[in-house]
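Deliverable D5.2: sample structural annotation.
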Amino acid sequence: MLNKEVKDKIIKEFAQSENDTGSSQVQIALLTERIRQISDHLKSFPKDKHSRLGLVKLVGKRRAFYNYLKKRNLQDFQKLMTDMKTKGYL
């Protein structure tokens, strides 16, 4: 689970405006961090099937956000991808 400090930091980095907490960019970044945490957990506990199922669901949800953003605004999608690479999320 993401703690409040990490979540606030990610929201601040990827928000499109002052009060933005739910845009596709923010949600993709939050899902990416959660996926990273679960992946690290599964390296230590490879038989944890429930966490693996949760990971697969989160990856699918993130993929849906990627597709939505790519279809809706290609420039924002490309900017998000470069931002995530430079900030170390990908």
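Annotation notes: The mean pLDDT is 92. The helical segments are 4-14, 24-44, 49-72, 74-86.
The annotation will be released with the project's public dataset once the embargo ends.
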